[in-house]
Design brief:
Blueprint (H helix, E strand, L loop, with lengths): L27 H7 L7 E3 L5 E3 L4 H16 L15 H17 L12 E5 L6 H10 L2 E6 L2 H13 L6 E5 L17 E6 L7 H14 L18 H4 L4 H13 L6 E7 L4 H12 L4 E9 L2 E9 L3 H7 L9
Parallel strand pairs: 3-4, 3-6, 4-5, 6-7
Antiparallel strand pairs: 1-2, 7-9, 8-9
Helix pairs in contact: 1-2, 3-4, 8-9
């Protein structure tokens, strides 16, 4: 296992990726121009700046709709009530970090176009990574999920935006499997990405959400706040053993597809889990492991990426198809 000296540079503390379109304050007049329905949700915050009430799930959803339309050309975006409503800037950072990872093996040039095929584990109803990734880099995506209702909602997004040739969706029918059944014989991916369920139970997810509100100074006992600040169904939020169990299972299963995926990756919310995942990947004989830090305001996050291919093998993957594992 190695950490390449050419690893992507971490984002400076509290800063979005330099290519992230969401730098600085939001331009609400511009957002309202492309999405007029946002106007009714815009408020003036205690600092005298235009904002929205992030404790209002409908406001957050319409805000995301406006961002996707203005910055990524997504003309239609909606999710069923109660499904995870993702913060767009942070999701975009993950995509840009993965692009830098590919550039590391490609003479510092980001590979673009549908020759780059990405597997999104747990795309959910929001389908956010494929929508951003195809808009930014022209990549092709396969999104997977165990929830048929989530996939049905995601398929509406794909069809409504004319992306059927760019984004494909597959249902994982085996809850304990991640790559098995989703990567077909002879199929090859440049990247896999994942936003794993962070919690071990609904109670833990709810407590985490309340801590966020308290930290933001929004925990008002007189106010009815949503149980989960950005929504989410069970599989989006928690699983047996929580994040650590999920990512360790992902790492173990990845070895079976060592030559069919150039770079595997996953978000890791708890920094203490990083070293445990690194140790497991060392035992699995991953050729390279990268830890990429990301930042958004006071929030710190990171993703871990690993490959079983050496540098020359990875470089060849951008020039010719990788050989499927026998």
């Amino acid at each position: 296992m190695s950490l390449s000296p050419n690893a992507p540079a971490p984002t400076p503390s509290g800063k979005l990726h330099p290519r992230n379109r969401h730098q600085g304050r939001y331009d609400f007049p511009a957002l309202i121009k492309v999405c007029p329905e946002l106007a009714v949700f815009v408020i003036t915050n205690p600092y005298g700046k235009l904002s929205i009430d992030f404790a209002d799930p409908l406001a957050v959803k319409v805000f995301n709709r406006a961002l996707l339309q203005q910055f990524y050309g997504i003309q239609y975006w909606d999710i069923p009530e109660g499904y995870l409503c993702p913060p767009i800037p942070g999701r975009a950072d993950y995509i840009h970090g993965l692009a830098d990872l590919l550039a590391m093996d490609s003479h510092h040039q980001i590979p673009r176009g549908q020759g780059i095929k990405v597997l999104d584990i747990g795309c959910g109803a929001n389908c956010i990574y494929p929508l951003i990734g195809q808009a930014e880099y022209g990549w092709q995506f396969v999104g997977t999920d165990i929830s048929q209702p989530a996939l049905a909602a995601a398929q509406v997004l794909v069809q409504s935006n004319g992306l059927n040739k760019t984004i494909q969706l597959r249902q994982q029918t085996q809850a304990q499997q991640i790559f098995q059944g989703m990567i077909q014989a002879g199929e090859r991916f440049t990247l896999s990405l994942c936003n794993p369920p962070f919690h071990a139970s609904l109670e833990e997810a709810t407590q985490g959400s309340r801590r966020k509100w308290r930290n933001l100074g929004k925990l008002d006992p007189k106010r009815s706040l949503p149980k989960l600040n950005f929504g989410g169904q069970a599989a989006e939020l928690y699983c047996e053993g929580g994040e650590l169990a999920f990512i360790k299972r992902m790492a173990t299963e990845s070895q079976d597809f060592a030559t069919q995926v150039v770079w595997f990756s996953t978000l890791v919310s708890k920094v203490g889990h990083v070293s445990l995942l690194q140790a497991q990947l060392k035992r699995l004989r991953a050729a390279s492991v990268q830890v990429v830090d990301m930042g958004q305001g006071q929030k710190r996050s990171r993703f871990v990426a690993w490959s079983y291919l050496d540098t020359q093998q990875r470089q060849a993957c951008y020039l010719s198809p990788i050989q499927a594992k026998d």
